[in-house]
Amino acid sequence: MPDFRLRVFQSVARHLSFTKAAQELFITQPAITKHIRELERSYGQRLFERRGNRVTLTEAGRLLLSHADAVETLHQQLTDQLHGLHAEAAGRLRLGASTTLAQYVLPPILPGFQARYPHVELILHNGNSEQIAEALLYGHIDLGFVEGQVKNRDLHYEPLMDDELVAVRCATAAGPPAEPMPLQKALAHPLVLRERGSGTLEVLEFALKAHKTKLSDLKVALYLDNTEAIKSYLEAAPGCLGFVSKRALHKELEAGRLEIVPVQDLALPRQFEAVWLQGQPLPVPARRFLLYAQQVFENISIT
Fold first, then answer.
1. d(Cα 126, Cα 141) in Å, to the nearest integer?
2. Per the record's keyword annotation, is Nuclease included, yes or no (predicted)?
3. d(Cα 303, Cα 299) in Å, to the nearest integer?
4. List of residues 6+ apart from 206 with CB closer than 8 A
5. What's the DSSP call for residue 90?
6. What is the pLDDT of residues 119-145, one digit of tens each?
7. Which fold has domain 162-269?
8. Under a CB-based contact definition with an 8 Å cutoff, are residues 57 and 47 in contact?
9. Are 244 and 253 spatial neighbours (Cβ–Cβ below 8 Å)?
């Protein structure tokens, strides 16, 4: 098994943050510092430059990172092959998912997978679609789940399930409009949107292009990096509109805090997709998880 200190080092190098590494590995920040100092003493090299709150890799750190990633890959391949002798899935599975998937879609299916494959150690990273693609290309995760329009030619995309974005606002006394709101009237509202790099924003941007409308033409009140923040903002901001996944609204709609606003001539369907490196076989745990997710989602529709 690879030295745990290398895993600590990889986490700090990935986040460029001792605090985020501690959160990811569920150990204290002093423990993170201790492991890094032990590695630096062992190799006789400084691995990170620390200037205030800013952390950067030294040349020695970049060299160690490339070798640590290689060691991790070899260890995972060995684990897969050994357990494959008995058709058993085991080892560490690093999943990455864009925000909507990580918050609302994947968590409910994880316990079932863990019950079926108790020897697989699951890790779920959250980021926008662009960040998940980058994590795959750098070897930081084994299997990703994203949504959006832009594709990377170095990655393979596999359709998983359908989704739909809807316009939403703070609940009003009159309730949702009886007829779809004209598109230009909807876009005249102050809008709360996801950040650049998110699949949600990509879908909206592509749909608006069909109406010869650019994001720069819109009156954007705020860009936020997650759906929960958008929903909370909308609840406190009557008169604003946001665009979020219909799957993310069950609680707020039932509680009467938010309402969906149908918009004329604006359809925002999208597809959640599994993604991994083009031309690379998935590790055994990743293959098992993909198959399990496909089976679970096969009969799930948007409600």
1. 11
2. no
3. 12
4. 149
5. -
6. 898 999 998 888 999 999 988 899 999
7. D-Maltodextrin-Binding Protein; domain 2 (3.40.190)
8. yes
9. no
